[in-house]
Predict the structure.
Amino acid sequence: MTSDTEFSDEDHGDSHRSLHSHLTTGTCDSDEDICTEIVLPDSPHRTPEPDDFFYQVLSVEQIVQHQRNIIDEVNNVLNLSPQVTRIILNHFKWDKERLFENYFESSPQEFFQRAHVVNPFEKKSELDLPSTSKTICTSSCSSQKFCGICLSPCNELKGVGCGHNFCAACWKQYLANKTCSEGLANTIACPSANCDILVDYVSFLKLADDPEVIERYQQLITNTFVECNTLMRWCPAPNCTCAIKANCVEARPVLCKCGHQFCFGCGENWHEPVSCSWHKKWMKKCLDDSETSNWIAQNTKECPKCNVTIEKDGGCNHMVCKNPACRYDFCWVCLGSWEPHGSSWYSCNRFDEEEAKQARLAQQRYRSSMARYLHYYNRYMNHMQSMKMENKLYANVQAKIDDMQEEMSWIEVQFLREGVDVLCQCRSTLMYSYVFAFYLGNNNQKIIFEDNQRDMEMATEKISECLEREITVKNLYEVKQKVLDLSHYCQKRRNVLLCHVREGYEKDWWEFIEDTAT
């Protein structure tokens, strides 16, 4: 088969972490049990045994080779050219089983027409004409030919086997525009009007004739291959060119060679204990509501009649709703109708009227819902900011390790780095625990969860303070045991919280509620 041009993978240096290619799950009955990572409940495909989940990290070269392997497997059955097979596989989202099923259930004409390629078997049967047996066809004869795009005379026109031929300059410009300007690769069709035959890989390389355009084209077809494959996902870390290939789609943590850990189910940072669906809703809500909710809570009230949010822009407490359909007069202080206030408006002596009571209750419900959201949002953001700042501890720890090289061996001071790892891991879990709690309905299990959350938070703050303030080069020996004990305790409290969440998922303890704030 014709080989594809491969890419060189970006060097990640010595910061690569070892690949954890097999993850397990479990529950615990006591504080001493250690649990591994969870399968969150809303992943689209579940395997019979969670322990069967495994994955591998692929470089760009390995992705290209994986494409070739799939093409070879299909060609062993269908005996087609590699470039035609590539187009057909892309049409079926690189699903071999679906491709074979459609191929053997359809007529050849219908099958290739749906994939937008010229039927290769028809070409072989038409008197074996050379011009129709090649992917790139050249039309040259004694009579003058004209390009179908620029209408210029040309002795050598080229096409993709569909019978529509154009000059080399027009092909080059057309392919460059489709690839670099429109970002297309696998869906570039013949330039002729009403022709849906696609330009195959080999034809593109010959017709484009521009290294930059070809490089962009190769990037796009690789991106499309990964995005079409439900069992593959690009690493979302900046400047990382690796992809993760798993054996099934699960909401599981995967670790790339660049050191970034993310959820294979949704592609976001690993967010245990909250599930992918609730995490997605939370992220959308934060983008829409966070700053707005803070400002609204502090500066506005709602009209008692139409519930439009109103900002007070003067000192007078006599408010007139500017909603054209409302125009209600009310008191800013008590939210009651302005009419009975009279000259004693400032004392709000009519506050106990039923109308004022109902307005106040409605606003209290709204403000209570908003206050609940801000409670969880502020704690979520606090742990996020702490985690960002504590990532700087790695540099400080490395400096202390370097200073201690003459007095202690390298292995003896690794407890510092491990302590920072535990701290950042706990911060991440605490951050997402507030998202989990925000959507959690009130029951006895939520009380237990919040108790575990409190204990973990206290332990995390202790190790954070110890690592940031107490450790110096001089007292490193003295605080070593304290750091080890705190690291162990933090990890223990984290496991208790996560195991309780996992057990709740398995036994259906959790009652989730939709957000009621608007």
